[in-house]
From TrEMBL:
<protein>
    <submittedName>
        <fullName>Membrane protein</fullName>
    </submittedName>
</protein>
<keyword id="KW-0472">Membrane</keyword>
<feature type="transmembrane region" description="Helical">
    <location>
        <begin position="36"/>
        <end position="57"/>
    </location>
</feature>
<dbReference type="Pfam" id="PF14155">
    <property type="entry name" value="DUF4307"/>
</dbReference>
<keyword id="KW-0812">Transmembrane</keyword>
<keyword id="KW-1133">Transmembrane helix</keyword>
<feature type="region of interest" description="Disordered">
    <location>
        <begin position="1"/>
        <end position="31"/>
    </location>
</feature>
<dbReference type="InterPro" id="IPR025443">
    <property type="entry name" value="DUF4307"/>
</dbReference>
Amino acid sequence: MTETSTDTAAGPVAERAPWPAGRYGRRREQRRASRSTVAVLGVLTVLAMTLIGARLYRAYGDGDYTASVTAFDDVTDTQVAVTFMIRMPADGTAVCLVRARDKTGTEVGLEEVTVRPGPDPERTMVTHRLVTTGRPVTGEVKGCHPA
């Protein structure tokens, strides 16, 4: 087997132009963003993230009002009884969104329920009979918030 020399008369590849000179125009100089532009973009980003965080906190973050379904029974073609336990402050009143879904997952009942604290506000039990437009297979509490 013969050896082939890798040396070329034109020099290494890095020294050669990747394309013929003058054929594709000239390269543009990179422009850097001014400090004021970077500062304004930074402030806008922080503001947007703060607004998004506040909105998510309002939707999901209030830990003082939490509910969990303990049972759903008395299921007929037009209703379901949903029993849930809610945790709330002793001096608070909650509004909970109760819903029912059918076997395809379609919502067949939805209602807001106002809940006043019981003897133990940390464990207030509520049973609500939800009227539905079809036969439900589940009863749920989507969430609770202060009234």
